[in-house]
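Tokens for Branched-chain amino acid ABC transporter substrate-binding protein. Go.
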Amino acid sequence: MKCRRILAGIAIASALASAAYGHERELVIGLSMARTGTFVSVANANEIAVDMAVDEINRAGGVNGSAIRLVKFDTAGDPKQSVLAVEQFARDNGALAIVGPFSSSEARVAFSAGERLGIVQMSMSSSAPGVAAPFKYAFRNTVDEGLVIEMVLKAMRAKNLSMGTAAIAYATDDAVSKAVGTTVLPEALIKVEVPVGGFVDFPYKAFDMSAQVSKLAQLKPDIVGVGAPPEAMINLAKEMKRQGVSARLFAGTTVGDPDLPVRFGDAGEGTIIGSPFYSDLNDAVRAFARSFATRAEAAKIGRTVPNQTDISSYDIVYLYAEAMKRAGVTGEPSKIAAERTAVRDELRKMKDYPALGGKITFRENGDAIKPIYVLEAKGGHWTLFDQRTAD
């Protein structure tokens, strides 16, 4: 009798464990998203892109005969919430890997939590230099912002654009923008031997930039590097046009809004940026954009055109699916720690994976080696100026 009670207890415990981790034939992936909060204008559709990828993979038979199940956590871009997301996915949901977090400020703390818990995370947007480097379980499906801006400048030089002198404009109250303005842009300009004549700074929500642009007018630069979110760059461009400052604007991924050329009007004509996504790249990307638009319209999120973080999120799901396939993961609770590590190891071994945004390999520091599309704002659209891959 006592033996039967013990066996019954074991069975109940096993059933509870299975319930906690979901159906035994499901492979759980967490989505740490910034659907609300500071980054909502660029991050609010990442969920749509991830849902698309999961649906496509499951319709095609899943991974190793198992369906992917997605669990979600809206961090609102808050680093503290990003840590809670990792802990929930790892401890409560039995996730094998996590898509996200979104920002570099979140990644700095969430990656540390994931390292302690032994679960892979891959950011779709973080590009501040070196954020993933200290960790074994941290990846970024992005390119270091310094490399992106260096590629932009090299493309501009190769096309013989006027770039004798530069100025730098940046937001002071956003950590990434400030890092770009004070460190990344100066270092990139030194590498291409363009002298920096001066700096202007502003709060990232600033509307009146007349004083900053007056200073730019005095500096008379050929080019102005920008470290700021899209909204601040728009205000800067419009004030430059009003004051007759004709310097060309350039930036990295922080301003990668697909609607930016339209929002600029003619004020930002000729602006050049680096992006891991070009919406008119090929038929596969155009098909993705059409499917995305249908879902985004139904969701009423305020835009229907995918941006670079949307396609990055989509590709992360496929990267995880491929790593799980190669590792032969089962999602069994008793194997969860080993299978999380196996996913990590397969990602680190992956070479030239054919993702939608281009072939992807991961550096030792966890960052992606992937194509960067140098785009120019022309006639209300982003046009392909050049295509490059960092060494």
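The chain has two domains: 25-142+280-355, 144-274+372-387.
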